[in-house]
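I trust your eye. Have a critical look at both lines of this record:
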Amino acid sequence: MEKKNLIRLIALAVVLVLGAVGGSIYWNNQNAAIYRTPQPEEQLAVLGAAKAEETETELVWAAKDKSGNTVGYIARETVTGFGGPIDLLVACDNDAKVMAVAIAGKEFAETPDLGMRVREAAYMQQFAGKAYPVALTSVSKLGDNRFACESKGFGGPVRVEVTLDADGKIAELKVGGEGFAETPGLGERALEPEFAAAFKGQSAPFAFGNGVDAIAGATITSNAVADALNKIFDYAANGGVEAISGATVSSNATVKGVNKAVEKINTVAKFLPEPEPVVLPEATGTEVSGTAKGFGGDVTVKMTVSGDTITAFEVT
């Protein structure tokens, strides 16, 4: 009896080990692409390039066509997501327009069915054609010329759904949403057909008093509708990247990574405009200073005072 029990235990152990190993092999095969670092050569086709050449900036490659002309750039950037590091490979054309984004990494550990979805083609393809800086949007595209957006009202979220006509003006407008809880008799009037009808034929920017009147006694609700509409029109004109539902941290991280990659490319390409220099007015008045002991040593404050106004301030 003891011998039979021992044999059964050994058999059970073998089954468990094989099952674990087999499951591990299957899991690794299924997810191998997640942990494989994308290579610059994989993004040459989208740029119409034949080869990638290293540049003076680390992890930035110039994409060259067969004649040796630079037709774009590729950069690798790493950012911190919800579960750890996220590696991105970003391809740009010569006008700083994002052409392709690949997301992976050896330590990729975003939450399955949430942050893990930033690797889905539908999400990554949203970046294609976007100009720097790329931004997340709260607008959802429901169909051809149909959009939805939520904005914060007085009692909670106010959802606005819009259909635009061929001229880019409002053809249909619907206000409400599952969480709509505006004040009865005031903000609740945003649900009335008369309120929606006032927007038909209008286009952004929306400001009450300019063709459309706010609801009396419900300024916050009215502004929520206007804010959602302005976001929708901006999205329709300029596009944006829609966040993965339930994975805001992962989505924000990838957008940040794409922008950082473009900025890294700019150190070579110089395709982004230089920021306007900040010119400070010349300080006038009486200069005074004082020194006190801080946590790590002395702190000196210098000020220039003119009458009752500080015109210059410096801490060293």
User: Anything to note?
Assistant: DSSP finds six helices and 14 strands in the chain. Residues 2-35 form the longest helix (34 residues). Helices lie at 2-35, 44-47, 121-124, 193-197, 219-238, 248-269.
